[in-house]
Amino acid sequence: MKKSLHPIMTFLILICIVIVVSGVLYLLDFSQTLYTINQTTLEYSVSTVTVQNLFSFEGLKYIFSSTVANFVSFAPLSTLIIVLMGFGVMEKSGFLKTAITALTKKMKRNTVTFLLIFISIITSVFGDLSYIILLPLSALVFKYGKRNPLIGVVATFAGLTCGQGLSVIFTSVDSSLLSLSLTAARVIDMGYRMASISAVFIMAVAVLVLTYVLTMITEKSVAPKLNKYEVAETLEEETIMTRRELRGLIFALFAGAAYILIFIYNIIPGLPLSGKLLDNSQVLYVDKLFSYNSFFSNGFVFIVTIFFVILGLFYGLGARTIKNHQDFVDTLGHSLDNIGKTLVLIFFASTFISLFRYTNIGNILVALLANLFSKTSFQGAPLIIMLFVVSAIATILVPNSVTKWSILSPVVIPVFMNAGMTPEFCQIIFRFGESVTMGLTPMMAYFVIYLAILNDHCKKENSISITESIRIQTPYAIATGVILLCLIILWYIIGLPTGINGATIL
After folding, report:
1. Which residues contact 262 (CB under 8 A, 6 or more apart)?
2. How far apart are CA 73 and CA 298, in angstroms?
3. Is residue 2 part of a domain?
4. 125: pLDDT confidence band, cut at 50, 70 and 90?
5. Which of 180, 174, 164, 78 shows the shortest CA–CA distance to 127?
6. Does a structural domain hold residue 240?
7. pTM score
């Protein structure tokens, strides 16, 4: 394989480009009127947003004063380090190898890929943690399944990003989007109401269809290309499970089951001494569980990490791979032994993302796209296609769903309602559109984790660049765009309900 530009150098170049472009656009007085809904107060605001010049004194001051803070507060960093401690215990103790081998030994390759993508799409609604857990786990699933681990990472990332907007499970993000949509809808109809399960039918169909198609793309197109890359590790020969390994697996499963039962008991309201992990200030159970202030949301990373530690520790005790406290301590740091390059990559990625956000370029361009709707005369399918494309383009610039929708919804939803389509349907189109390009933008914080894990499993001399990683994801993005757009138009033409109390037409 020919040598390509390392992602660290690419991010450094992108940082320089952002600085230069911000200066040029500032001189050109590039600005846009921004109609937004405040994400907290749900109040409307109108303002003129201009480019923040990174070449100015204030801009240079921001670069030098906030770079370290932006790195430290970068979402994937702390989550990655904490979760990797749990991974270290599971992998070093031998639990992952034994469990994965036992689960996948008699499965067909296509079945493993299908399940991995399906789980990725379903769990994508949990956001940050899904990327941190599933990307390294998928590499090991394929490695211990005697396949190229790069295939597992790529397929999982495709499932996570292409499934970003397919919210079968209602989460805090969906709650925020619903609030924004409802606020925008009440400009047209003060008494309008929206249901949290109004999209469950179309989302369920989209998940199943997309899982199958992404599996086919992985096996028929992507896997043969990725097999050309030399991996860093040698795939081990298949071994028979020993009595110690079986005993360790039994220990781990019983301990893990007990931990899960205790956790589940504490998120069920009404039982004796239960419900302690819920945000009881909320009315709806889904909000009690997933609201931003709930213990479940704030503590879920650590909850999962402890679960991983329990599985690995009890396996190690049963299999005799952990004999004393020193063995246990060694396992905690196992996955962090070679994290140096990943930290450097995260530093440059976090700097690029924070500088781009500071310039306001992304918000201005999204506002420009939003304002196109106030001038359009499109109806029906052309209007659907327009929002779908705008959402896909906007996601490249501003990956955050709530931030994007706070800019788009005040303009888009009234246009759709005047065209005879429901706000619920409008929000579904937006979510489907952002699923297309989520995996193609380095602006997305967890893109850097994807890059890091890919390169961890590649030989040092064959690093995978940003452009290569995007090129690998492109077939998935194209397929997702075609499938979801056809699905949404078909739903509109037939007039099927999108979910419970969900309609396409007013």
Report:
1. none
2. 15
3. no
4. low
5. 164
6. yes
7. 0.91
